[in-house]
Amino acid sequence: MPTPELNQFTHALMVASDYCTYDLLGPQGETANVPLVMGRAGRTAAAHTLTEGLVMHAASDRRFPRNVIAEALAASYGVEIGRANGMAMLTGETAPDGRSRLLTGEALRDAFERLLTSAGELGVARLSHSVRDPYGLL
Q1: Which of 10, 66, 14, 21 is CA-nearest to residue 40?
Q2: Which 8-state DSSP code applies to residue 21?
Q3: How far is residue 135 from each of residues 24, 27, 30, 106, 131, measured CA to CA in Å?
Q4: Which of 25, 29, 85, 135 measures 20 to 30 Å from 6, CA to CA?
Q5: Residue 127 DSSP one-character state
Q6: Vertex 61, ends 63 and 134: CA angle to 5°?
Q7: Is 130 within 8 Å of 15 (Cβ atoms)?
Q8: Phi, psi torsion values for 29, nearest 5 degrees
Q9: pLDDT tens digits, residue range 30-68?
């Protein structure tokens, strides 16, 4: 099976406090109901604009471990998000209907490269990464 191009899909990048990352694939034009997604995981999240078209939704529920890698990733964009706990989710801007647009392949690539740099600066020895394909696109 040929390897699909990143730009065939849209993406949401999840970054967990235990250094696990997930790429949630969506079809072109897909959006996500971030409060619902984060809420199902028992978290509330504040939205922080990192750049035009890139938003980090960072949980701040102290019942979960501190997410220093999400904090460092935001700082790499020059944005201070305060203390993040548990899960953070990167998406595109918020659409008029309140749903978040998903990321292009280029935006995902840039965010992930920054994530790897941030992990190295923090001395993280290993990041895990997986792809979630809820639409059966692969």
Answers
A1: 14
A2: E
A3: 10, 8, 11, 21, 12
A4: 85
A5: -
A6: 100
A7: no
A8: 80, 0
A9: 888 887 877 766 667 889 999 998 999 998 888 889 999
